[in-house]
Write a structure and sequence with these properties.
The complex is a heterodimer of chains A (about 110) and B (about 110). Chain A is mostly beta strands. Helices cover about 0% and strands about 60% of the residues of chain A. In chain A, the strands form two sheets. In chain A, strands 2, 4, 5, 9, 10 and 11 form a six-stranded mixed β-sheet that branches. Chain A has a five-stranded antiparallel β-sheet with strand order 1-3-8-7-6, with no helix packed on it. Helix content of chain B is about 0%, strand content about 60%. In chain B, strand 7 and strand 8 form a beta hairpin. Chain B starts with a strand and ends with a strand. In chain B, about 30% of the residues are buried. The chains are: A mainly beta (about 110), B mainly beta (about 110).
């Protein structure tokens, strides 16, 4: 099956700083989603982005499908951005999402 | 609008007891449904998925089973819980035919003692 690697595994930022999270995947995909897991465990959909670039407020994401990676940008980070960010993908002909191990982000005031 | 409900939010059960977790979806018909487990706060593992009533696929052989008695209802069960069944269980749905996006419920935190 598809392998998903996320980096870095842990990231500590000062409030107001910018960051880039990376997701590498081993095969072509028909679905790529970024999630934020909050301290209560809820998985919040951030982006559905199998290719291209999207922006939503301070967050943006880019997927370069031909090179098999996706990037999540967080600008002007806030303490509420803390949590674990997951990248998840599914391959052609499959509905099943394979998750990376996540990046744990801590934003300190 | 579409919503997903999962309950209970928290559950503490003794070893050897049965388990039933329920998930229901509103606002969409014939969704794909999924059960995931998350252990130790990281990494989600797909347990079961269903593309229709009575159609269940298992990804990991284990002490758990799943059923889909109605179009928008997905149940995770066990006859006898093990300590290793502890974890955070998440239900998800994927509306059809489009978009190809999974949406997650709030999860159930299960502790087996």
């Amino acid at each position: 099956g598809i392998q998903v690697e996320q980096s870095p595994p842990d990231l500590i930022l000062q409030e107001g700083a910018n960051s880039t999270l990376r997701c590498n995947f081993s095969d072509s995909v028909n679905n790529l989603q970024w999630f934020h897991q909050n301290p209560w465990g809820q998985l919040i959909n951030l982006f559905y982005i199998p290719s291209g670039t999207k922006q939503n407020g301070r967050l943006s994401a880019t997927t370069v499908a031909t090179e098999r990676y996706s990037l999540l940008y967080i600008s002007s980070s806030q303490t509420t951005d803390s949590g674990v960010y997951f990248c998840a993908v599914s391959g052609a002909g499959s509905y099943q999402l394979t998750f990376g191990k996540g990046t744990k982000l801590s934003v300190i005031p | 609008s579409q919503t997903i409900h999962q309950w209970p939010a928290t559950l503490v059960q003794p070893v050897g007891s049965p388990l039933s977790l329920e998930c229901t979806v509103e606002g969409t018909s014939n969704p794909n449904l999924y059960w995931y487990r998350q252990a130790a706060g990281r990494g989600l593992q797909l347990l079961f998925y269903s593309v229709g009533i009575g159609q269940i696929s298992s990804e990991v052989p284990q002490n758990l089973s799943a059923s889909r008695p109605q179009d928008r209802q997905f149940i995770l069960s066990s006859k006898k819980l093990l300590l290793s069944d502890s974890g955070f269980y998440l239900c998800a749905y994927q509306p059809r035919p489009y978009p190809n996006i999974q949406y997650f419920g709030a999860g159930t935190r299960l502790s087996v003692l």
